[in-house]
Amino acid sequence: MQAVFTIERKAETGVEPEDVLTIKNLYKSFGSNHVLIDFNLELYKGENVAVLGKSGSGKSVLIKCIIGLLTPDQGTINVLGHNIGELNIHELDEIRTKVGFLFQSNALYDSMTVRENLEFPLRRHWIKLTTAERTGKVKEVLNNVGLAHTIDMMPAELSGGMRKRIALARTLILDPEIILYDEPTTGLDPITGKGISILIKEMGEKYNTSALLISHDMKCIRMTADRIIMLIDGKCYAQGTYEELKKNNDEKVKQFFE
Amino acid sequence: MPLPQLWRRFLSETGEMSRFTGRFFVQGFKPRYEFSELLHQCFIIGYKSLPLVGLTGFIMGLVLTMQLRPSLVSYGVESELPMMVGIAVVREIGPVITALIFAGKIGSSIGAELGSMKVTEQIDAMEVSGTNPFKYLVVTRVLAATLMLPVLVILSDAISLFGSFIGVNIRGVTSFNLFFKQVFDALSFEDFIPAFIKSYFFGFAVGIVGCFKGFNSSKGTEGVGRSANSAVVVSSVLIFILDLLAVQVTDILGLN
Q1: Tens-place pLDDT, residues B16-37
Q2: What would the pLDDT profile of B65-90 be if each residue is shown by its tens digit?
Q3: Residue pairs spanning A and B at CB distance below 8 A
Q4: What ipTM does this complex have?
Q5: Distance from C-alpha of A196 to C-alpha of A228, rounded to nearest angstrom
Q6: Nearest-by-CA chain A residue for B128
Q7: Can you tell me the distance from the alpha carbon of B57 to that of B160, in angstroms, rounded to the nearest whole number?
Q8: What range defines the domain where residue B190 resides?
Q9: DSSP-derived 3-state class of residue B9
Q10: Residue B128, min C-alpha distance to chain A (Å)
């Protein structure tokens, strides 16, 4: 059973859960625009945490700092026990293979087929795999996202929901320990969005991953997140389960649940 | 835009491009080497440009011959036509026209491809999957452009001379052997070598400018179009500047 570590459960069990991602005192500004101000976060093994905030609140900046696409002005980010700021590029690349990233725009390589998109990370990092093993792995993840028949199609031939599933399959192919989801349901219709939310939950359980999900889609967050962190004014303004935050009387928190 | 601002923008972009070029030399020599992608890019950049380069080379040789003929006839030196066309094509017209065609086809394609990849976060996706996008996308394309253009120039020169042979035979009669004997008698290594060497620089300029423009593309489809467009414009201007420098260098070395 997937472990769920809310703050309360941590206190209840008395067992110190293993943290896979820790952010301490994170600051990031773009000129005079202070996006993240003393932001703190902990993600435990097997846990799904959603960061909820308005558009432009710095959610994507946060996730890009975690994966090393942006450099924070101040603060530390520890991923799987490694301080991202202290790693050289080769060590960072090594860590990146253990952290999947699902882009808001899917970011599928549009000059490659679905098979080539999925094989790309395998060819680069699991170089000892034979062709048959590589094909087997590709088929396995495609089956898991329900799109085995698209293996030789180009991304342009797929619908938005299918592209999202393929992007998720590519994220899963290296068996990551953490997955970062950047607005996974944005731009999708409610039914497809619900399907993606279910898939995120199922894949998390199947691959035993921890997930940090950036979104403002309350339905998706409710379905997938064990804990929600509210990013307001660049800070971790409030946190708790969906039900806990729904009962919160703070005006800034309440507006997300209305 | 006011002149000081334009000047500042020009200097800023030149500085960024120099840094980008420096990064190419630093990253290009460090492992991991992307040989399979380099071969793939050589196929796309070299082999797939061959029909266009061949066609323009043929027309260039044919038209040049037909345009030169009346002037030479009026001076009574019609027999010098193969020699004149040979020297003009090998020393100057072949490398420059082929490089300009190459800039139009490959420079714009690299600018648009990388620009589109940048805008749709594909370059970021490559980076977060633990692949160095600069090495995989930029180093391979620049090397492929640098290596392939001289080969295309040689082929274009050959096809151009064949076009010239056809042109000569439209109004007169010259055998294939005689035509090419006259051409090669007039040419020496001093004609081939500088043209061949400057083709490498032209190819490098097209590759690096295309990659720089694409890699630094601003957000949106407009930015992709602008990257493709400015890749062609800047690399074409650079080809002429490099050609001017090459003439000066060959002159100093006594190869003219």
Answers
A1: 999 999 999 998 888 888 899 9
A2: 999 999 999 998 888 999 999 999 99
A3: 51
A4: 0.84
A5: 19
A6: A96
A7: 5
A8: 35-252
A9: helix
A10: 6
